[in-house]
Amino acid sequence: MTDSSPDLATITPSTLAQAACVCPEPTAELLDAEKRSGRLWQWVAASFCVLFGVALIFNQELACSGIWFWYAVLHHAGKRLYADLHMVQQPFFVLETEAWMSLAGKNWMLFRIPALLHLLALTAGIFLLSTQSRLRDIEKGLLIAFGFFVGINFECYSFGDYHVVIGACLLFSMLLLLKLDPDGAAKRNLKIAAALGLLSGLAITDRSTDGMALFCCVAFAIFCMAKVGRPALLAAFIGVASLVVAGIIGVTGDTYHAWLANSLFRAAGAKGGAESVLLRPFLMPWISLLELAKDSWYGPLIGPRMFLVYRSLGVVAIWTLLIRPFSKADPNSTIKAVVGFALIAGVLIWRGLIGSWAIELLIDLLIVGYYGLALFVLYTLRRGFLRPGRKPATNQRQVLLLLPFGYLLAGSLSSGGYPRGLCGPIAFLFLLLPIVFPAVFERGWFKSSFLVLAGLMTISGIASKVRDPISWHDYRTFPMFSHRRTVQHPVYGLMIMDDALYAFSDEMCSSITAGGKGDLLSIPFPFVNYYCDIPPWQNYVQTFFDTSQEATIQEMTAKLRQSPPKWVLYQRQPEILALHERVYNRGKRLPHRDLDDFLVSRIVSGEWQVVRDVRYGGRSEWMLLKTY
Description:
Oligomer: single chain
Structural class: mainly alpha
Number of strands: 6
């Protein structure tokens, strides 16, 4: 098993460019070898991902759920999403939820089926993309697990939310681009371009920032990869994407002006304004470095966070240098392997190395490296397309690396430039690297280091999701399969909830019933409306800090002054409000603070009665208020 291990310095930008160029079709020997090895480990990994995903689906009910349900119910009742409900998100997920409810009703268990279909689509995309590389079966299996568990390692990632749809559209777009014939087959290429337009159109109406990033990157990829018929392919792509967007917006019943005003322009205002939003991709590498250097002891490179990164990279180095060269014929290699395993065990046991923190810090480091790789790709592509008369010097498959990078940039627009939770782009990047740079992965030491790092992050991803199936700010639940119960709900049938959420929801519904049912406004999220089966007052579905417009909050406050509902459930979370003011609004006051002042004034004056005052989920104070 010994082989020559070239020095790290041998991988230079020119080496990468040559490696990307050297991308011949698989030989008969390679195809035969793959056929003999089969896909056992790939199927094992994909099956495990699906089973784990199913478990997650039934362990992810939170007190901020119910948004898509109520938007779908109200839209089905004739309310327009933008003109009437002032929604700032895109409509695709609401329309999907509404369509499913028309088929299956409100049953909670049946409501998990769309989430299961999303899970299968995501896993299928990861599986199919991994098959495009020349790694061995077991290595592809590891990459499938990495793509899945690192890709979903966002604290509030849910298969019943829009993030998974974007991921699936991105994966299948990359697969279709790999099938594009650069030299001809015009009819086939037009079909691929149309399918790419369909995926980009769905993505835009699922989440505008991610969708537009995918649209732009795919258009650029078609331009780079197709040598014949570019105008026709781009026309087909843009035309189909435009028709899909127009059709989906048409189904909502809103005007295109209302859609643009609410979901694009005013949505940016909720995140701090267009100027602030567009600046964040440029700040993210610097913010990532600051996150790594936080709480340092002696300078930016010596601290608890960087120490964890060093230990992770140490495991990679130990495996590559001491364990990988093992050979039965060499007694010294046996000693090295034993020492290597002992060192790795010590590193893993001492203070722990497995969990979400390991992934988050490595993601911070990898994001900085990804910016450098993206600049390298743009530089090499420039040699072929931005200098007239020159023949392309590189394999144009490199342009595929820009698709996850666009996903990363789009994520920064919503995260305030902070890298936390932006694991999906790195996961998809790792899936692409063996495809785009096959020659580099023929170097044993490089492939070994890559796979060990992927394995370490995969184990961390599994462990973190078991401990924390889903959470967001002050919305928490218990580890998987712990403190769960089945509840027979009179409207939604069998439900699975954690004990704390059930006790909280049941207490609120019992208090409302005992005090005489009436209208209920839940601030900021409508889960108690959902559980108690009471529609949101005046159609105010959600009023969270970065997903509601200033005009909406002011309008709702004015209505509360004049003619309030009988019941108001207010989740008071001043720390989270201050966080959003700092991250998204440059420390300036959000309109939600005026709403908070108004509600507190009504409580202090005694005009509104506090029926229940509960500390639940984190630092939040939940107050059930009776206004008359």
